Amino acid sequence: QVQLVESGGGLVQPGGSLTPSCAGPGSTFSTLRMDWVRQAPGKGLEWVPEISGSGGTTDYADFVKGRFTISRDNAKNILYLQMNNLKPEDTADYYCAILGQRRDADSWSFRGRGTQVTISS
Hints:
Elements: E1 5-7, E2 10-12, E3 21-23, E4 34-39, E5 45-51, E6 58-60, E7 68-73, E8 78-83, E9 92-99, E10 108-111, E11 115-119
């Protein structure tokens, strides 16, 4: 079993920033490709970005390119999602996850309980 624990969500105004984080498993964290997925109210899971185990390769959904940055600190076993220029449509529960298929949010094998992000004025 892989335990993932998200934190750092909250309420911000449009145009604001947040940086949720995710604590990952100890000994294996640096070997894992990690993703963030989100679920807006009443909608399905949506893939956001991924990062390779080393952190050297990243990939982003088009709707967050230029606004969000995924990163990781393998020494601390922490995954980050820096979110800038937030929009009301970014409102969702955000989950760190391990996906079975790249870019397929529904293929998750492990994910945390999520952190809520609300964008509202």
